[in-house]
């Protein structure tokens, strides 16, 4: 029986990580083929930025829905719903014939991701203990980033070819959608919610009622909204949540601006395969850095339980400042700088990717009761993604209006160095300063996190005693 349970836990984690792989691959698809989409729909950087803005904005607005759904339905069902939604929208983008159609389906894609990401995070939070939760999130991020590498490289390589007379980038979207739908189906069939595997005292006392009224969908509307509103109020009033969301709104701007990296390299003159290699090295650095950062924070938190995660996050955010400047302004923008770009991108990814796994995700899990974990991740995504979505169109607007980017001057084969320079200035504007502000915004956590952590612990003890 024990062996069977261990196998079930392992299978669930494998499938959850595969879902994370496909989610990150899907996120990287469109940015990897910006140049080809720009040519197909006659769109400039600002238009492409709006596509990212639309998806992120809808994702942010819809994220609280994940918290509401998970209160009343098991997470595998919620994950499958979101996966099918994003798979459908990804396939639809691959067959679109107008920019307006692409915009609509990118919005639907954001809705699907809004449901999936908070549920994934809370699933991992419930599957690992406090002392190793950073490593757990790091492993999820590592595997997810590998998926992002695969999705980005696949799309970039396929974009320069044709298959059966169809543009390669369209084929990449349809292929990724098919794989995503398959993973969603497997999650629905085989993943077991950790809340069911490891029931609390309350769960044990109310399991039959919960199965009958909630998991079968018979809960009253009044009950659903009452529970959802209670969870929302409990999450929003936590000061640690407020601080992390504030830094996240600012700190997410650079990561949103980075969607233009592939287009920037191609404007410099790198071909599809070389651009994919450069972005792959950056993604590998981010993947390794997220795991390393989470592990370091876990170890340091054993010595400095209330400040170690904040220190790690500030270090990572600060490192974004010099690396952004070196990458975008110091290194000569020439194909001859391939090796320098490679080393810089890898080291940059290795050091700027700690925040989520070392601090944000583990700290969220410790400042609210278990039943509110999906809700706190959902609202974090709602605020961060909604506000950071402005970075992509701002990069395009700055590049075109302030730095002189002209899409008509771009050679489809050789790119354009003046346009590459203009785009790099637009990207830098949305990276260096936000990284610095993000670093400063973490400072209050040195005083706030300890109290919120103790409050959550006391609340959990009281709830157990009442049961």
From TrEMBL:
Ribonucleoprotein keyword on record: no
Keywords linked to the UniProt accession: Membrane, Signal, Transmembrane, Transmembrane helix, Transport
Signal sequence residues: 1-21
Membrane topology recorded in Swiss-Prot or TrEMBL: Multi-pass membrane protein
The Major facilitator superfamily (MFS) profile domain, residue ranges: 12-453
Subcellular location: Membrane
Molecular function GO labels: transmembrane transporter activity
GO CC annotations, alphabetized: membrane
Residue intervals passing through the bilayer: 48-71, 78-100, 106-125, 137-160, 172-192, 243-265, 277-296, 308-328, 334-354, 375-398, 427-449
InterPro entries: MFS (IPR011701), MFS_dom (IPR020846), MFS_spinster-like (IPR044770), MFS_trans_sf (IPR036259)
Stored SUPFAM superfamilies: MFS general substrate transporter
Pfam family membership, one: MFS_1
Similarity annotation: Belongs to the major facilitator superfamily. Spinster (TC 2.A.1.49) family.
PANTHER family registered for this protein in UniProt: MAJOR FACILITATOR SUPERFAMILY PROTEIN, SPINSTER
Name under which the protein is recorded: Major facilitator superfamily (MFS) profile domain-containing protein
Organism name: Vigna angularis var. angularis
Lineage summary: Eukaryota, Viridiplantae, Streptophyta, Embryophyta, Tracheophyta
Gene label: Vigan.10G169600
């Amino acid at each position: 029986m024990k062996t069977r349970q261990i196998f079930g836990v392992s299978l669930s984690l494998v499938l959850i990580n595969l879902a994370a792989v496909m989610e990150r691959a899907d996120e990287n698809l469109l940015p990897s083929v910006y140049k080809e989409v720009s040519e197909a729909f006659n769109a400039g950087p600002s238009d492409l930025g709006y596509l990212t803005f639309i998806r992120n904005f809808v994702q942010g607005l819809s994220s609280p829905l994940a918290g509401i759904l998970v209160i009343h339905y098991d997470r595998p069902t919620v994950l499958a719903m979101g996966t099918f939604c994003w798979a459908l929208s990804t396939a639809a983008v691959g067959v679109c014939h107008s920019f307006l159609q692409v915009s609509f389906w990118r919005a639907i894609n954001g809705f699907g991701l809004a449901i999936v990401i908070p549920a994934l995070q809370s699933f991992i939070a419930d599957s690992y203990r406090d002392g190793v939760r950073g490593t757990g999130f790091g492993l999820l991020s590592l595997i997810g980033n590998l998926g992002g590498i695969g999705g980005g490289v696949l799309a970039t390589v396929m974009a320069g070819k044709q298959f059966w007379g169809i543009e390669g980038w369209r084929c990449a979207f349809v292929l990724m959608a098919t794989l995503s739908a398959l993973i969603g189906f497997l999650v629905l069939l085989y993943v077991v919610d950790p809340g069911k595997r490891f029931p609390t005292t309350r769960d044990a006392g109310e399991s039959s009622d919960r199965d009958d009224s909630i998991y079968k969908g018979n809960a009253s509307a009044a009950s659903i909204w009452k529970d959802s509103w209670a969870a929302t109020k409990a999450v929003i009033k936590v000061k640690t949540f407020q601080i992390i969301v504030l830094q996240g709104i600012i700190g997410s701007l650079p990561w949103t601006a980075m969607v233009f990296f592939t287009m920037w390299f191609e404007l410099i003159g790198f071909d599809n395969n070389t651009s994919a290699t450069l972005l792959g090295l950056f993604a590998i650095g981010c993947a390794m850095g997220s795991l390393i950062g989470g592990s370091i924070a876990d170890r340091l938190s054993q010595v400095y339980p209330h400040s170690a995660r904040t220190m790690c996050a500030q270090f990572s955010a600060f490192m974004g400042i010099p690396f952004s400047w070196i990458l975008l302004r110091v290194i000569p923008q020439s194909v001859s700088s391939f090796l320098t770009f490679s080393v810089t991108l890898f080291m940059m990814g290795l050091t700027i990717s700690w925040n989520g796994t070392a601090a944000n995700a583990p700290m969220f899990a410790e400042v609210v009761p278990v039943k509110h974990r999906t809700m706190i991740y959902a609202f974090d995504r709602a605020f961060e993604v909604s506000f950071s979505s402005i970075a992509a169109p701002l990069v395009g607007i700055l590049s075109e209006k302030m730095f002189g980017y002209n899409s008509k001057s771009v050679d489809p084969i050789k790119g354009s160095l003046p346009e590459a320079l203009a785009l790099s200035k637009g990207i830098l504007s949305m990276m260096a300063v936000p990284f610095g502000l993000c670093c400063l915004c973490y400072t209050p956590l040195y005083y706030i996190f300890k109290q919120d952590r103790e409050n959550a612990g006391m609340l959990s003890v009281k709830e157990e005693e009442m049961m």
